[in-house]
Each structure stands twice: as structure tokens, then as C-alpha cells.
Design a protein that fits this description.
The chain has seven helices and 16 strands.
């Protein structure tokens, strides 16, 4: 089911979003009425609403909309909150001023069964407005499709400067030979899971991830709300240790983050 501002979303509203593709979103996993990093998700929506629409978004209203939709589900559920204006005019998008809150759900990934390690391919791509989690996903999905057609699980983006930045819908981190977590220094979307991990654990640095530095790493991992912490088995021809203890420790750190009540 899809709800817009707390009521069933009309086909006309969903059509407007599909045809204009202008808005922003965040995705969270609701478990037992709570969300890890809820304050970060709400702050993202409020900040992105200012950037995309020049409008203020009430975070308490967002919580209420999510609470209503999640109440009809048992167990963990993945909730996407999309902010868009159903009345946005393609000819005059500057008039968009009444963004609404669309809430949709899908089953959450199974718990207790870690996802297999990823094999990813580096491709050159830089997201438009990388600090905003916007709905314009064409470029990202085109790169993911290209990587998967080539036999990989997903894509890892590299900028014009040759530096690694982020995955299609996830952040990437590395573990060096000393056991230090290394996050790429690049313009990326600051993912909620990444931010929770960076706040909850010492021994982390940010550095430009050149090809040479990447090849010196002993492990790599992907992070986002849906997958948590997932090992990366290989980047192109560079293989990594998938059972590295640091990745296990990061998983424990993330699992220990308390749930914020909706």
C-alpha cells in the first residue's frame, strides 16, 4: 500500500511522481515500532526538502505518516518515505511549494542469514547533487545494469579523478592491514548506516581511495539501511577477505545501535 499524507495515494498522484521524477526520499527499516538512526533519517528529509523544494518539512508529521503505515505490518518492514509535490508543473517547476509525504513499504531483508559477499565492478560515474538522496536514479541504475550484465553483483563508482566514491545505493568502506577502517574521501551521499558506524566505533579514517590504496586493503564492505554491513569479496580483479574480524565487529556495532521509537 502507498499512502500520501496519511491517506491512500491516488493513481493521479503516483502518476505525477512517475512522470516528473522530482523529489527526494529516505529508506528505513522499522522493527518493533522502532528505527535505527531515526533522527538521522528525519534530519535528512528536512534538509533535503529545503534543498529540493525550498520548503520546511515537519519531522513529527513524517513520523506520524510512517507510524500509521508501519502499524499494519508484523515483524521488520522496509519503509521508504518519498517527498514530492503532486502538483509540480514540468513547465514551471519553480512553483512547486506543497511537497507531500508518500510512504511505501516492502518486506525487509531476512534477519539471521547474512547476505553473500558482493563482487563489484568499478565504473566511472558521479551522482548529480551527491549530498541529496533524490529520486533521479537513472544514471545509477544504468551503471548497475551494466555491471550485472558483465557478471558482477553491483557497481562501484569512480570519479573523474579516478578515486572510488560509493556504490549504486550504498556506501563502501575498507579495512587496511592494521585493521583500521578506511572510508573513501569523495563526494558521496552520507548514508545513515555509515554515519551510525562512524559514530559508534574508534579506529576509522577518511582517505582518497586510489587504485593503489584499494589494492593494499585486506577487506571491504558495503553499508546501507537494508543490508546493514555486507562484505565485498572483490572489486574487479582485487579479492578481499570476506570473514575479516573487523567486518564482524562492525556488524555487532550496528546491531547494538538502539531502536528509536516512532
Amino acid at each position: 500500500m502507498a499512502t500520501l499524507n496519511g491517506s491512500a495515494a491516488s493513481p493521479e498522484a503516483l502518476q505525477a511522481l512517475a512522470l516528473t521524477n522530482y523529489g527526494h526520499f529516505t529508506t528505513m527499516v522499522v522493527e518493533d515500532g522502532g528505527v535505527r538512526g531515526l533522527a538521522l533519517h528525519l534530519a535528512r528529509l528536512v534538509g533535503d526538502c529545503r534543498a529540493v523544494f525550498g520548503a520546511e518539512l515537519d519531522p513529527e508529521w513524517v513520523r506520524e505518516c510512517v507510524r500509521r503505515e508501519a502499524a499494519g505490518h508484523t515483524g521488520a518492514v522496509t519503509v521508504r518515505v518519498t517527498v514530492f509535490d503532486p502538483e509540480l508543473n514540468l513547465a514551471a517547476p519553480e512553483r512547486a511549494a506543497r511537497p507531500g509525504v508518500l510512504v511505501t513499504t516492502r518486506p525487509a531483508p531476512g534477519t539471521g542469514h547474512p547476505l553473500p559477499a558482493l563482487r563489484v565492478r568499478r565504473l566511472r560515474f558521479e551522482r548529480e547533487s551527491p549530498s541529496v538522496k533524490h529520486v533521479s536514479l537513472f544514471g545509477q541504475l544504468r551503471m548497475r545494469r551494466e555491471a550485472r550484465l558483465a557478471g558482477f553483483d553491483d557497481v562501484l563508482f569512480v570519479g573523474a579523478d579516478g578515486l572510488v566514491s560509493e556504490g549504486c545505493t550504498w556506501n563502501i568502506g575498507f579495512v587496511d592491514e592494521a585493521g583500521t577502517v578506511v572510508w573513501p574521501q569523495a563526494d558521496v551521499l552520507p548514508g545513515t548506516t555509515m554515519r551510525l558506524l562512524r559514530a559508534g566505533r574508534e579506529g576509522q579514517v577518511t582517505a582518497p581511495m586510489t587504485d593503489g590504496r584499494l589494492r593494499s586493503m585486506r577487506a571491504a564492505f558495503a553499508t546501507n539501511t537494508s543490508i546493514g554491513v555486507r562484505p565485498v569479496a572483490a572489486v574487479d580483479d582485487v579479492a578481499f577477505r570476506v570473514d575479516d574480524p573487523v567486518i564482524g565487529a562492525l556488524r555487532e556495532t550496528y546491531a547494538a545501535v538502539p531502536l528509536d521509537r516512532l
